[in-house]
Amino acid sequence: MWIANNWKDYEVIDSSQGEKLERWGDYILVRPDPQVIWNTSKTEKGWVKHHGHYHRSSSGGGNWDFFGLPEQWQVKYNTLVFNLKPFSFKHTGLFPEQAANWDWFSKAIKDANRPISVLNLFAYTGGATLAAAAAGASVCHVDASKGMVNWAKENAKSSGLDGAQIRYIVDDCVKFVEKELRRGKKYDAIIMDPPSYGRGPNGEIWKIEDRLHSLIELSSQILSDDPLFFLVNSYTTGLAPSVLTYLLNTSLTKKFGGEVQSDELGLPVSINGLVLPCGASGRWEKSK
Fold first, then answer.
1. Is the pTM here over 0.90, yes or no?
2. Is it the case that residue 108 has pLDDT exceeding 70?
3. Do 150 and 262 sit in the same domain of this protein?
């Protein structure tokens, strides 16, 4: 398991009865987590005294209760600064487990000792974009949501990266890759974090089981002749890391060589030293 254990502004304090108790900077949140199927005693004071609690509804969705939580606040990861705010379906605008991937590809970018261009698809609020830019890469950030792209720009500004080589695009990710292929554009590295299900800006339907393999195949065609890495993230229940290994091997290793590793992402739980699983990632990397 790849564990995001270098955070100072974030921690999972405890987990029990379908929920996790988290510290985001100075604020304590309680949020649901489908992986937490154990029922242990909730002795930590944060279970009672916290700043926000998201309650899942039995009919779908849910709602927040707030207790002194600001509309927006910040957390840091090394030099990166993220603006957080609670919004629908329990999220805050950041997936802290992804720091394990940020550390991995940041090192790859720095160690390459050459200019690296990165394409970040389904780029959300820009965690991977900022990490890659801070490591010295030029980044093309693509997301179908204008609101998410604007949020990423805000995070870049807060991180002192508003002058970095980041190109922001609001577009359907599949259509954008098709356009880049027609234009003959090439990238040294690709990151993608596709949702299980979603819609593009013009109503395009995305379903990961039907579209992921074809998107990886398509995206491999816009890799440069000397690609550095290819990262695929998945939060889809039932999509095992070994599936990502197979997809990347099929689409990349046969063409470029290199090697693939896939595993779960995890966050350490402070109270007991356990690790909370948080989705999976597949990493293709050029041979050293």
1. yes
2. yes
3. yes
Residue 56's CATH number: 2.60.40.1180
pLDDT (tens digit, 9 = 90+) per residue, 121-166? 999 999 999 999 999 999 999 999 999 999 999 999 999 999 999 9
pLDDT at 201: 62
Burial (CB count within 10 angstroms: exposed 0-12, middle 13-18, buried 19+), residue 265 = buried
Encoding tokens for residue 94? 């950041």
Helices in the chain by DSSP H: which ranges? Answer: 99-112, 127-134, 146-158, 173-183, 208-220, 241-248, 254-256
Instruction: Confirm whether 90 is domain-assigned.
Output: no
Beta bridge partners of 10: 24
Query: Which of 282, 213, 226, 278 is closest to 257 using CA atoms?
Result: 226
Same domain, 155 and 38: no
Is 142 in contact with 176 (CB distance < 8 Å)?
Answer: yes
